[in-house]
Write a structure and sequence with these properties.
Number of domains of chain B: 1
Number of helices of chain A: 3
Largest sheet of chain B: 10 strands, mixed
Number of helices of chain B: 1
Helix content of chain A: 25-40%
CATH superfamily of chain B: Acid Proteases
Structural class of chain A: alpha+beta
Largest sheet of chain A: 3 strands, antiparallel
Radius of gyration of chain A: 22 Å
Helix content of chain B: under 10%
CATH topology of chain B: Cathepsin D, subunit A, domain 1
Distance between the termini of chain B: 8 Å
Structural class of chain B: mainly beta
Strand order of the largest sheet of chain A: 2-1-3
Number of strands of chain B: 12
Strand content of chain A: 15-25%
Radius of gyration of chain B: 19 Å
Largest interface: A-B, 42 and 45 residues
Shape of chain B: globular
Oligomer: heterodimer
Chain lengths: 100, 180
Amino acid sequence: MHPNGTPPVVPPPRDDFRSDDLFMELNDEGKAALADANWVNEHYSLGTFDEFKGQYIAVVDKKVLGHDKNLKRLRETVSRETGISVNRIVTTLIVRKQTA
Amino acid sequence: MARLLLEARVDFSVPYVYRGTTPPTTVHVPCYHPYIRLYLVPPAEVVGWQPPQDLGHARLFDAIVDTGASLTNLPHDVWTVIDGTSTSEIRWLERTESDPIHIGGQRHNFRLGRVLLAAMDWQGRWMPPAWTTVRCLDPTDEPIPALLGLLSPFLTERRQLRHVDDDRTRPVWWLEDPRW
């Protein structure tokens, strides 16, 4: 306690800072899509998708369902062939270029 | 609003000769890019906007956080998702010249516009939408990544921190709002 009775100003601990994070309220489909996006991230730098470099990949349920240089065409093709909503398909551009 | 986790991805690596072994071996220095996931928000929904519960992936795209670029660049495949929608979601700006830009050693023609972008991360955090001036690039033979430029509202009064993960295998980037 400060001599004049005013409590000292103490910065909040780091953990309190994290409580300010805004989190999305996802439904089951959104949570599944987020899990797929995380799966892509985990494997991106491991070279899992190297064979698709220079292309977009389409992922649903941790499986690559298609790849194409044209993003719109990829979404439409995968959605038409699988019946999965375009909004559920996670797409990522593989730009990794491994130099020899 | 506090922070977003940026994703560190290895887009390429630089090889060098390591002479600590016999015979010498080739070692690759991984070159990471910090990625952010952006969402094209319909302007009609900006008041009280909340992220879609199903994520709406057709409007989601990854972008490299590029503090060396001034403006944000959107590849043709990205911005055409919302071009021509019933309510105009791109506020086009008239350019006074038509000079192309150079990205990755290639020339790109573009239109200039303003779009509403929100940001998300891969753990479910998000930041509210903000109008952002963007270059809407013409079609290219090879797909190129989107770039989030330094003048983006997401990089205004925010800081980008890079840490080393506990296992020291990859960097960890946070985009933080210091006004907490």
